[in-house]
Specification:
This protein is of the alpha+beta class. It has 6 helices and 7 strands; from the N terminus they run βββααββααβαβα.
């Protein structure tokens, strides 16, 4: 997908993030040369949609999404949360199920988005050591180890 030229306002291009609805972060826009004032103007003009703090979608691309409005809105919100959380972040739990078309037994919380990021190796090893120590206990009476 090509980046969008904002000819009426500036010759700058919104960076092509490759994300759903052209989602981009404030940091990515600033790195591409957009002043924060310009970003606010783009939101006011309807070129960008402020999805959440630090994340913007391209209004034209949001308009092209298909499916029921609540699902489209949730998809854009989840994609924005993942973008803001960082490169290794992924949608998880109920939101991952929704993205993959898996039916949920209950309603997903409207105000919460499930995002997961990998732990650093030190944290993983510390967790492994703690869980290994907990498992090294005597088996219950009547059970062989």
């Amino acid at each position: 997908m090509a980046s969008v030229t904002l000819s009426a306002m500036t010759s700058q291009r919104i960076p092509d993030s490759g994300r759903l609805a052209g989602l981009t972060t404030t940091a990515e826009l600033v790195e591409a040369g957009f002043a924060k004032k310009t970003i606010r103007n783009l939101v006011r003009r309807g070129v960008l949609i402020s999805v959440r703090r630090g994340a913007y979608a391209q209004a034209e691309l949001v308009g092209r999404l298909s499916g029921p409005a609540p699902k489209r809105e949730r998809l854009v919100s989840v994609a924005a949360a993942v973008a803001v959380a960082g490169l290794d972040a992924v949608a998880s739990h109920e939101d991952a199920a929704m993205i993959h078309g898996i039916d949920l037994l209950g309603r997903q919380p409207a105000n919460l988005i499930a995002v997961s990021r990998p732990l650093g190796l030190d944290a993983i090893m510390a967790a492994f050591r703690r869980s290994s120590a907990l498992r090294a206990v005597e088996p219950p009476p009547g059970r062989a180890g």
